[in-house]
């Protein structure tokens, strides 16, 4: 309202004329005045102790009713911005803190991105099926019962658990009744729940593969568990060594496609880990992070199918769809359900709307179609990589190629850090095998120097450049 | 394929004829055979040790190529379902466990619902704005950058934090820069993070209101914190008693609308808690669970605005939209950000797509419109309740009515449990004040017997019946 703007009295009194002008429009006059005064105090234009004009005077200044001003004052007194003492009128509260004016700029939070990123965890997010996902979300929202909007089953929506039970038994050979499936927000969350549950049961140690993500080793340590390493060779983790380990109540494995070496757990090793679990009453935690992606033949079925009461199966939508969904699942033995549900009770569950959308996405067949098309595209990437390396670096051996999203490029011993540095200089971010090494691994165990290349990490348009940069730094 | 179906040899050999018939179609012949054999083992129709026919014989039986059979066998050997010894041919593995056939029925998991539920936490979920939410989801999905589908900022999407910063300062008087806001999945999750962070800092005790949800008292206990009670009277929690408490580093309050009593924290009590925080370097945890819903005048602004460096502000979408979204937010002092981010690192973040949808829902104005319409409808409910009680139970005093989603019906001393029982007999679920009482509250402190009625808990169609049932059990 212009008269507030042009009214020098009120402007001088508060130095808040502009705010008043901005705020005091139409029906929101009282609200506008209240906000204007609050801002004036917050921004330090009205300092603690300052006496405010009498309601009648201010009302006249601003051309609003006196009751508007008195209501506004009492509101701010109720909130603690102003105080009213008999005789001394209305003043700015001594307790009202002017706000600090230091505000981080957006810019300061942005990280500089490398030119080419081929690190684990990334994926070609340009390929997220936005249209099909939205269609699934629409169908899910339209058909959801009212009750779906309340507090849900801590184990997850039954619709999603049923859809996953079908999918997992069909595609991964998992023995999964809906009642055994627990929905969680990512593998990290799922492993946290299971680790807490096992700790609750008195577990002291969980054996882990000697090569893997340090993030998960740290997680298990945080829960208070020891994590003795299992050496990984061309047949996968040496599960045959489990028998010799003390107080180990579970083992965390990536049987279908060891991360990061890419080898599959051999039939003998599968047999021996099952034997270990049965003779020692141990548990197997099967991390099936990218089981959908196998190129040489049908994916190797999940270990869980062989003994659903000894194996906890972990799957995730992060690799097949996108990490942004924060949806993953665990198939657990019946006798562990209540413990895991209790652990989950300490943190909240996944959005019911998203769970219903994913259920719809799976049952409609869109998930199968998406995975198939991603598999084809990743297979092309893998072939590009092999061909390009044959031409430019024929001495470099490429392994771990039968499946998944990453390949291992074996390097001459002692050259790993040198190659990583050369890559960094070209703005190429790749991982060296060394960064996945378990700290407790025997010093005398000399690992193969190698790069771990996630060829699914970039968009099609960026792939060629990344591949070129990669070849250019090979010895 | 019919020939497999009609082929008695193969059917008899495995008792799996039907499966084979179902599976062995078109291009999926090998996959079909593999699945058929796996199922036959899993279901115990092929028992451990059973010798399988030679690949040539089976290929002839089924009318498929021999390579199809050998590939299928080697696949199942790799998975551990079958074993191959020199001379003894291919056998079912001794380790393959037939599946248990006990499957919980859906029915056994369904709980019987009461006829009328007026318990805290429930809401009129029929009113969730499905269409507008879907429209926001569409806009969010279409405009999201590719990077949004990756692993996100553990503190939450900047788009949502910016939208909330505007909304909270406009509607709740919160001083909220986006950089101070942490997105979490529900108040429970947020309080867990903060409690862990304070514990990390060496906190021993957090004072809580003498009446509140036991769930949150248990949460704080789980983290290892003592929870001394603050008596609640007609001016809210007696924050003036904080000075006398030992080793209390924070206090959890519901200042705008105490839960469950419904009183607002008086200006004096607001002042004294701020003084306590400043003199003892303490922190105030402000649970603003239903601050949007106030009927007598503009909502009382948040305490946080008075001292953003001493107050952690908790808000949630559970009351204003739906618990199913699992989205809430904390506005925290800068010096606590890293600790809380670290605590959050242990559990996963909220879906980025849902965060972007909520950001869109807020910035488009749909959130304001939804809250306004809910407020009107809840106000009508409150008026219905008052009118109905005036007529049927004039002696019952109704309090805590100025705001929020629940009302307190004061009962003659000693009648609370009797009334609750009478209500239960009529299928009416309401809470008694007793269930919110802090266990450590002084025995000599006699509380007012009362019902806590969540009048937002049912749909419009069910409201009249619930109200009638409620009136009928009043003394």
Low-pLDDT regions of chain A: 1-26, 99-113
Supply Rg of chain A. Answer: 31 Å
Tell me the number of helical segments of chain A per DSSP (H or I, 4 or more residues long): 17
By CATH's scheme, which homologous superfamily of the largest domain in chain A applies? Type I PLP-dependent aspartate aminotransferase-like (Major domain)
The CATH class label of the largest domain in chain A is: Alpha Beta
Q: Largest interface, by Cβ-Cβ below 8 angstroms: which chains and how many residues each? A: A-B, 91 and 91 residues
What key attributes describe this structure?
homodimer; 475 residues; alpha/beta; Arc Repressor Mutant, subunit A; Aspartate Aminotransferase, domain 2; Aspartate Aminotransferase, domain 1; seven-stranded mixed sheet; four-stranded antiparallel sheet; elongated; disordered N terminus
Structural overview:
2 copies of one chain form a homodimer. Chain A is of the alpha/beta class and 475 residues long. Chain A folds into 3 domains: 20-113, Orthogonal Bundle (Arc Repressor Mutant, subunit A), CATH 1.10.10; 130-364, Aspartate Aminotransferase, domain 2; 368-472, Aspartate Aminotransferase, domain 1. The first copy, chain A, is built from 17 helices and 17 strands. In chain A, strands 4-12-11-10-9-5-6 form a 7-stranded mixed β-sheet, with helices on both faces. In chain A, strands 13-14-17-16 form a 4-stranded antiparallel β-sheet, covered by helices on one side. In chain A, a hairpin with a 3-residue loop joins strand 1 and strand 2 (89-92). Chain A is elongated and about 90 Å long. Residues 1-26 and 99-113 of chain A have low confidence and may be disordered. At the A-B interface, helix 4, helix 6, helix 7, helix 9 and helix 11 of A face helix 4, helix 6, helix 8, helix 10 and helix 12 of B.
């Amino acid at each position: 309202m212009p008269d507030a703007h042009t009214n020098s009295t009120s402007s001088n009194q508060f130095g808040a004329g502009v705010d008043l002008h901005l705020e005091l429009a139409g029906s929101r006059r009282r609200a506008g005045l209240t906000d204007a005064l609050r801002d004036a105090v917050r921004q330090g234009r009205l300092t603690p102790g300052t006496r405010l004009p009498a309601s009648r005077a201010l009302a006249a200044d601003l051309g609003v009713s006196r009751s508007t001003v008195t209501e506004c004052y009492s509101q701010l007194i109720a909130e603690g911005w102003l105080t009213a003492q008999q005789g001394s009128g209305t003043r700015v509260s001594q307790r009202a803190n002017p706000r600090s004016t230091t505000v981080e700029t957006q810019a300061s939070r942005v990280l500089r991105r490398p030119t080419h990123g081929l690190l684990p965890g990334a994926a070609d997010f340009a390929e997220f099926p936005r249209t099909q996902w939205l269609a699934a979300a629409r169908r899910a929202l339209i058909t959801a019962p009212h009750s779906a909007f309340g507090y849900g089953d801590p184990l997850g929506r039954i619709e999603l658990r049923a859809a996953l039970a079908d999918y997992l038994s069909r595609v991964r050979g998992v023995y999964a009744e809906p009642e055994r499936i627990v929905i969680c927000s990512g593998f990290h969350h799922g492993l946290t729940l299971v680790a807490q549950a096992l700790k609750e049961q008195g577990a002291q140690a969980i054996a882990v593969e000697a090569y893997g993500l340090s993030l998960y080793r740290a997680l298990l340590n945080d829960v208070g568990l020891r994590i003795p390493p299992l050496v990984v060779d061309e047949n996968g983790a040496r599960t045959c060594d489990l028998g010799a380990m003390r107080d180990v109540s579970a083992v965390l494995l990536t049987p279908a496609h060891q991360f990061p070496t890419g080898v599959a757990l051999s039939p003998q090793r599968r047999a021996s880990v099952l034997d270990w679990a049965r003779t020692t009453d141990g548990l197997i935690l099967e991390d099936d992070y990218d089981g959908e992606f196998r190129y040489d033949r049908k994916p190797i079925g999940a270990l869980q199918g062989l003994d659903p009461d000894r194996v906890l199966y972990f799957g995730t939508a992060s690799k097949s769809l996108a990490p942004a969904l924060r949806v993953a699942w665990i198939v657990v033995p019946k006798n562990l359900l209540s413990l895991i549900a209790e652990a989950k009770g300490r943190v909240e569950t996944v959005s019911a709307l998203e769970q219903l959308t994913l259920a719809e996405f799976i049952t409609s067949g869109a998930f199968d179609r998406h995975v198939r098309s991603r598999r084809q595209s990743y297979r092309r990437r893998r072939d590009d990589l092999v061909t390009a390396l044959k031409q430019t670096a024929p001495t470099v051996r490429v392994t771990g190629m039968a499946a998944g999203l990453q390949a291992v490029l074996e390097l001459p011993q002692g050259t790993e850090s040198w190659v990583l540095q050369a890559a960094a200089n070209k703005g190429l971010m790749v991982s060296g095998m060394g960064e996945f090494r378990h700290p407790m691994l025997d010093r005398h165990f000399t690992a193969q120097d190698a790069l771990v290349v996630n060829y699914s990490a970039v968009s099609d348009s960026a792939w060629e450049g990344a591949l070129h940069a990669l070849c250019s730094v090979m010895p």
